[in-house]
């Protein structure tokens, strides 16, 4: 299994958010080649600013593994993580983040800052962007086009 396989799983999660009229972002956490948690945005559904797919997936993975140390895990997410999610990724010690499309307004993995690569942190995250970028971008564009009518 490769990055595209797991990103497709994240896209399925994004589709669930789309169907529930929330911003279609999906996340999957993988350990030793197996999905241990998955989530989608519920920020609008739950009326809670921190209900990003990455945060929910991290919480589920920690609960499942019984630890906050996710240092042998990979996070797949359909859109570049925001500053809040980058903080959670660093706190969880996730070793690798793979994302689909960049986020020019909120992305802090690479677009607005390279928070995950900063040598000031006690943990450096390997970041790979652009995996299934077109698919990840299309679902977001479709969502916002429908919202704007």
Structural description of this entry:
With 149 residues, the protein is an alpha/beta fold. It contains 5 helices and 5 strands. A 5-stranded mixed sheet has the order 2-1-3-4-5. A hairpin with a 2-residue loop joins strand 1 and strand 2. Helix 1 packs parallel to helix 5 (133-148) and helix 3 (53-65) runs parallel beside helix 4. The longest helix is centred in the first third of the chain and has 17 residues, at 3-19. It is globular and about 45 Å long. The protein starts with a helix and ends with a helix.
Tell the overall outline: globular
Largest sheet descriptor? 5 strands, mixed
Structural class: alpha/beta
The unreliable regions are none
Approximate strand percentage: 15-25%
Mean pLDDT: 96
Number of helical elements: 5
Number of strands: 5
What is the H-and-E element order? Answer: HEEHHEHEEH
Distance between the termini: 39 Å
Give the strand line-up of the largest sheet: 2-1-3-4-5
Specify Rg, calculated over alpha carbons.
Answer: 14 Å
Helicity range: 40-55%
């Amino acid at each position: 299994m490769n990055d595209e396989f797991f990103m497709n799983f994240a896209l399925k999660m994004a589709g669930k958010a789309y169907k529930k009229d929330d911003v279609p972002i999906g996340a999957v956490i993988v350990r030793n080649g197996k999905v241990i948690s998955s989530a989608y945005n519920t920020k609008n559904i739950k009326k809670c600013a921190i209900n990003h797919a990455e945060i929910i997936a991290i919480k589920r993975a920690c609960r499942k593994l019984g630890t906050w140390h996710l240092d042998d895990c990979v996070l797949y997410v359909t859109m570049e993580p925001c500053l809040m999610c980058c903080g959670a990724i660093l706190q969880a010690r996730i070793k690798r983040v793979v994302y689909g499309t960049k986020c020019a307004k909120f992305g802090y993995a690479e677009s607005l800052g390279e928070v995950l690569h900063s040598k000031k942190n006690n943990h450096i995250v390997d970041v790979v962007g652009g995996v299934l970028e077109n698919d990840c971008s299309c679902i977001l564009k479709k969502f916002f086009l429908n919202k704007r009518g």
